[in-house]
């Protein structure tokens, strides 16, 4: 089976998924689970699994499906380069945050700057478009949407969130979505219970955003949900470049879990207070001073070693 660039990228993402979740040797990899995890159909998943089988990462058992051939600790040593799409996405995010990319750019400008194949650039631009981070301009131009690109914007965002998010959990129609909450809780527990040893900055950001959007959606008020989603879009570029270290990542997960436990007890007032405290602590950790320090040393973390 011939593997195209998208399927190669998917194969690398599946490998990262296995490592991040501490998957043991002999674990079953159901196609349906992977399709759901990466929001793709069975065809690219099967092609990606075939590519990983050729790498010796997994093995196919007749009439049973695919199984891991190694422990997750052994998978990290495999020579699987970071997908071009992810590298380019991170580079664009970094250049935009540092002011090296102007608000308005053309595809020709981006081709010259990054020297990548046209399909790679177009896929990344489509991803940025779907995430609300860029907009199309007439012709072949693109415009970056506003992000939290300064200490003032960061502070204003957290002050805004400290007003609306504690309020939304006290809405009269608030009802915790238990199915989504259980899935969210499981990801957080994997971190706090040391079931995974490392996590990518993207995965950590998405977990965080998912938690806050879960609470907003449970409020039953569409305007709260829209506001929280908008704030998550604004902070995505910064969130993808983690600079706070493993300790804060674990603390964040514990704070989220405590809020979920409190909501399950039906104590919305205390959950509101805990949420405000959580946002207050997070808001005081300015990413801009940390980013400057990190860039002078090893750069922002893409993989966070937890334990």
Contiguous low-pLDDT stretches (5 residues minimum) are 77-81, 294-298
Return Rg in Å: 20 Å
Averaged pLDDT, please?
Answer: 83
Query: From the helix content, strand content and strand pairing, which structural class follows?
Result: mainly alpha
Give the distance, in angstroms, between the N- and C-terminal Cα atoms: 39 Å
CATH-defined fold name of the largest domain? Four Helix Bundle (Hemerythrin (Met), subunit A)
The first-level CATH class name of the largest domain:
Mainly Alpha
Number of domains: 3
Order of the strands making up the biggest sheet? 3-5-4
Q: How helix-rich are the residues, as a percent range?
A: 55-70%
- Supply the CATH superfamily name of the largest domain: GntR ligand-binding domain-like
3D architecture notes:
The protein has helices spanning 5-20, 31-38, 42-54, 72-75, 84-97, 107-114, 118-130, 151-168, 178-192, 201-218, 222-234, 236-239, 245-264, 268-284, 287-296; strands at 58-61, 65-68, 104-106, 134-137, 141-144, 198-200, 303-305. With 307 residues, it is mostly helical. The protein folds into 3 domains: 5-75, Winged helix-like DNA-binding domain superfamily/Winged helix DNA-binding domain (Arc Repressor Mutant, subunit A); 84-144, Arc Repressor Mutant, subunit A, CATH 1.10.10; 151-305, GntR ligand-binding domain-like (Four Helix Bundle (Hemerythrin (Met), subunit A)).
């Amino acid at each position: 089976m011939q593997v195209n660039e998208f399927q190669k990228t998917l194969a690398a993402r599946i490998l990262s998924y296995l490592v991040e979740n501490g998957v043991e040797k002999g674990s079953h990899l159901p196609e349906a689970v992977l399709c759901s995890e990466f929001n793709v159909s069975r065809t690219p998943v099967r092609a990606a699994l075939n590519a990983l089988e050729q790498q010796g990462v997994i093995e196919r058992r007749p009439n049973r499906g695919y199984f891991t051939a190694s422990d997750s600790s052994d998978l990290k040593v495999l020579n699987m380069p970071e997908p071009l799409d992810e590298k380019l996405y991170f580079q664009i995010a970094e250049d935009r945050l540092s002011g090296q990319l102007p608000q308005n750019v053309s595809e020709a400008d981006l081709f010259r700057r990054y020297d990548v194949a046209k399909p790679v650039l177009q896929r990344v631009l489509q991803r940025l478009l779907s995430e609300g981070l860029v907009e199309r301009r007439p012709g072949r131009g693109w415009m970056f949407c506003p992000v939290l690109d300064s200490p003032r914007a960061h502070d204003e965002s957290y002050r805004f969130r400290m007003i609306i998010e504690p309020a939304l959990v006290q809405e009269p129609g608030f009802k915790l979505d238990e199915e989504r909450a259980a899935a969210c809780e499981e990801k957080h527990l994997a971190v706090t219970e040391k079931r995974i040893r490392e996590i990518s900055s993207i995965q950590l950001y998405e977990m965080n955003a998912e938690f806050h959007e879960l609470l907003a959606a449970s409020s039953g008020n569409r305007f709260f949900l829209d506001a929280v989603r908008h704030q998550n879009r604004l902070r995505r570029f910064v969130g993808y470049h983690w600079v706070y270290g493993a300790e804060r990542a674990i603390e964040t997960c514990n704070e989220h879990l405590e809020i979920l436990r409190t909501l399950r007890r039906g104590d919305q007032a205390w959950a509101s207070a805990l949420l405000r405290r959580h946002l207050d602590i997070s808001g005081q950790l300015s990413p801009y001073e940390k980013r400057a320090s990190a860039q002078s040393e090893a750069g922002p973390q893409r993989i966070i070693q937890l334990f």
